[in-house]
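Q: Here's a chain of 327 amino acids. Please give me its 3D structure as tokens.
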Amino acid sequence: MTISDGDLREMYRRMSSIRQFEDTTKDLLLKGELYGAFHTSTGQEASIVGSCMALRIDDHMVGTHRSHGHPIGKGAKLDRLLAELMGKETGVNQGKGGSMHLSDFSVGSLGETSIVGSGFPVATGAALGSKLQGLDRVALCFFGDGASNEGTFHESLNLASIWDLPVIYLCENNGYGELTAASDVMAVEHVAERAAAYRMPSATVDGQDVLAVYEAVGEAVARARAGEGPTLVETLTYRFENHAIGLPIENYRDPAEVEHWRTHRDPLLLFRDQAAQHGLDGAALDVIDAEVTAELTEALDFARSSPVPPPEAAFTHVFTNPIPIAR
């Protein structure tokens, strides 16, 4: 696939946005400004952005419990995402979703939840809806290696294949399902091998190479739009942080392994080498980094100054009549 200078810049902008957003929110969590379980996608930026850049704005996307980065990769604004994490009324979900339950319909993000494997039926259903409506819109379903052992994975891939649904299942294989090595709980070496059971095309690509991901997902998107059905794409990636920030257990990974990925497999640093080959120099990328930093500063001011939801908001967006609040 050919890629323009503008697309290269936008790829880096989104990757830098994810990295800086995650670093900022981690710092806020450790300082006590954010609360709850917190799962960052630092290190997986290329997998996210390469996939989302292959989509249109109206295409659907479903994330995971590790999904601050996915809405950003799809083009979401940082200020309302940060406000959501801080539980503010101006957040993308009015402060009711938080870290693991973000959605932003303005960019096609249908949401993510803390339930592992829950996104498969949502993305499959979205793809079925597009097909029934005669639209050429596709659905992209992010999931981790651990989720590929869930029943929803196999049920969804089976249905998608039978019905030729326009859906791309994107496995971010970071080598660990929570604290367990993927190699200990899978009989196959690669998640992509499982596509054969459903006569589904598949690919395994370097998840730290944003252009490789972009190309593989782009081909899958083209097939889906042409009515040729679903694809399973596996990106081999790595999360630089622990399973969750503040988790006291860290000895399940060799520190040398983590350092290797941080030092030699950082997707932002790898992209700088690729960009130079396309005539985009480091100075231009430095400018983008600075612009993202400024945007995040404004986003943080916005989030901090936004109001918290009123008590009555607990009874909006529900499936029954609100009950009176006792004063």
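Q: Can you summarize the key feature?
A: The chain has one domain: 5-306.
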